[in-house]
TrEMBL record:
Originating organism: Henriciella pelagia
Residues of the signal peptide: none
Gene transcribed to yield this protein: metG
Pfam family for this entry, one: tRNA-synt_1g
Annotated GO MF terms: ligase activity
Name this protein carries in UniProt: Methionine--tRNA ligase
Length: 580
RNA sequence: GGUUCGGUAGCUCAGCUGGUUAGAGCGCACGACUCAUAAUCGUGAGGUCGGGAGUUCAAGUCUCCCCCGAACCA
């Protein structure tokens, strides 16, 4: 933190794989909470950089492109745009949404490989691998299929058997054949690959993990589990054409690796840095990324927070740190991790083929992004897996958004329009009701901020809702519609305070439901510069509830949230699955 | 199989280092109000905190065993 109190916060969310639109569970487990957090910290006045990207390399992308009958590059170009659009549709406020297939990532990945090798952490090793004579190439794990040596399933993939679930080595398959051409004309040949000697880094990584005492329990225990089992050396190259080429330090193709690329898990996390460099170029400051990633060039005061699903924890706490720390260069390491469990569909898995679950693009065809954002944050899979159900979704939206927030804004703005000419009333003095709401907010607003800082998203949503609910309670106490009959001035205080509360509710709603929040703040006419959640603003509650200029004109917004009807739930359950 | 995390009101969950009558939201019942998207506000019913044993002056909160669920195992 600088002496102005302005923090520099780097936020990344796990890179979604290029292969297809993500479902709500993927959204809820990394991109969405990262966005909510980034938005909050920006509103606090901090310097936030939120980076994400598509993870494009690897066998699944090649296979999908092949199935679609297009080149991998074309396939990724198309899929990247689709995912980018889906992200925009959900109002994900990336500063940059990059691509791991970009040149920045390639250069950085090659750089890391070179320095790691210079530090003795990468070595070439010979290994046996399946070679397809008809295809004229070595076959990476998933390109080989055959009979499982354990269960005799006939279509086991080289890396894993879909029948018995065991992990396999492709050379152990019985009657192997090429998944590319179907040719059985294959043989086991010796080839060479680069291995990352993670075992050498065991103690260093353990010391780093153990020093990171404030990591959440989920992240820490997964990391320590891996370390307890011992880090294994892993091959970081594959026989593919789609990926980061393996080069010599001078940039030329490495001898014997002309037809190989780095394995996707090695280059993907480097894209956090690569995407930041892409952003840097985009804003016309090609060296700016270094201030976020090089501790010797200004990144020493950066707070770096990673958001990810639990499946990614090992890569972020062990694998990628091996790369970063092993380079012995002053790169920024993660400070805080937030790991999520899964969102399930009625307790089961999302499945495209079985019509179970809603994917990001489909969701936006049904309802505005805010509806999904609210539900997924209020029910974030933090402590354990969380089940999405239409019934829970309906209850949450109708109660929290439509009844508590939407109706509050509606009732106070409409009443103001009908009785006070749509202008913030000037008359009247605060009394007990105003004192009550001030006390209420003086305890709740700091709690809200604390929950954000702790990244407790369910609590963030619950506290946000409680603040909105306090507005309704206030109106019951102030009852301007009753006072209006005896004293218009007494009623005026309640309306004025109510309008200011509506504005405040819009402000605190911004990180979670940005679009609806904007509608509220626009309707009340809050200038952009007054929409912050900084410490000074939230600290002066008495000022907050009388902040609008007296006489200022407001206009009731349209209905903010339409309720979800029972027949819609029935229809969507039919279309997307439901009721287990 | 190993490891980890869970099992608290009908539902979804909070309950930090053990300490007054175990909490919230939804749902439900009743009442109030009428500005509002039949919204809101209040009150209440409802739990032997998965089961068993133990430690302690005191356990949802610690220990052991068992049952059930979920996840991870490169």
């Amino acid at each position: 933190m600088t002496d102005t109190g302005k923090r520099r916060i780097l936020v990344t969310s796990a890179l979604p794989y290029i292969n297809g639109v993500k479902h709500l569970g993927n959204l809820a487990g990394s991109m969405l909470p990262a966005d909510v957090y980034a938005r909050f910290q920006r509103l606090r006045g901090h310097d936030v950089l939120y980076i994400c990207a598509t993870d494009e390399h690897g066998t699944p992308a090649e296979l999908a492109a092949q199935a679609a009958g297009v080149s991998v590059r074309a396939y990724c170009d198309e899929q990247h745009e689709i995912q980018k659009k889906a992200g925009e549709g959900f109002a994900l406020s990336y500063d940059h949404f990059g691509r791991s297939s970009g040149e920045e990532n390639a250069r950085l990945t090659q750089h890391f490989a070179h320095v790691l090798e210079a530090n003795g952490l990468i070595e070439e090793r010979a290994m046996k691998q399946v070679y397809s004579i008809d295809d004229g190439r070595f076959l990476p794990d998933r390109y080989v299929e055959g009979t499982c040596p354990h269960c005799e399933f006939e279509k086991a993939r080289g890396d894993q058997c879909d029948n018995c679930g065991r992990l396999l080595d492709p050379v152990d398959l019985i009657d192997p054949y090429s998944a590319v051409s179907g040719s059985k004309n294959v043989e086991v040949r010796e080839t060479r690959h680069l291995f990352l000697r993670q075992s050498q880094m065991q103690d260093t990584i353990r010391a780093w993990v153990e020093a990171s005492e404030d990591w959440p329990q989920l992240a820490r225990s997964i990391a320590l589990k891996w370390l307890d089992e011992g880090l294994r050396d892993r091959a970081i190259t594959r026989d593919l054409s789609w990926g980061v080429p393996v080069t010599s330090p001078d940039g030329s193709p490495r001898e014997g690796f002309e037809n190989k690329v780095f394995y996707v898990w090695f280059d993907a996390p480097v894209e956090y840095i690569g995407a930041t460099e892409e952003w840097s170029k985009k804003i016309g400051k090609p060296d700016e990324w270094r201030k976020w990633w090089r501790t010797d060039e200004g990144a020493d005061d950066v707070e770096y927070i990673q958001f990810m699903g639990k499946d990614n924890v090992a890569f972020h706490t062990v694998s990628f740190p091996v790369t970063i720390i092993g380079s012995k260069e002053p790169w920024k390491l993660v400070d805080q991790l937030k790991a999520f469990n899964w969102v399930t569909w009625y307790g089961g898995k999302f499945s495209t083929s079985n019509k179970r679950g809603v994917f990001m693009d489909q969701a936006l065809d049904l309802l505005p992004a805010d509806y999904w954002r609210w539900y997924l944050i209020a029910n974030a899979p933090e402590g354990s897996d969380a089940a999405f159900t239409w019934e829970g979704f309906q209850a949450s939206i109708n109660s929290d958004l439509a009844n508590v927030l939407g109706n509050f804004v509606n009732r106070i703005t409409k009443y103001c329009a009908s009785k006070f000419d749509g202008k913030v009333p000037d008359a009247g003095q605060p009394d007990d009701a105003e004192a009550w709401i001030i006390t209420e907010l003086e305890t709740r607003l700091p709690q809200l901020v604390q929950h954000y800082e702790n990244m407790d998203f369910r609590k963030v949503a619950a506290e946000t809702r409680a603040i909105w609910a306090a507005g309704n309670e206030y109106l019951t106490k102030a009852e301007p519609w009753v006072k209006y009959k005896s004293s218009v001035d007494d009623a005026a205080v309640g309306v004025r305070t109510g309008l200011n509360l509506a504005a405040l509710f819009g402000i605190v709603a911004q990180p979670i439901i940005p679009e609806a929040a904007k509608m509220i703040l626009d309707a009340i006419g809050i200038p952009e510069k007054n929409r912050t959640m900084n410490a000074e603003g939230l600290g002066d509650v008495a000022g907050l509830i009388d902040a609008l200029p007296h006489g200022h004109a407001i206009s009731p917004p349209d209905v903010l949230f339409r309720k979800i009807e029972d027949d819609q739930v029935a229809e969507w359950s039919e279309a997307f699955g439901g009721e287990g």
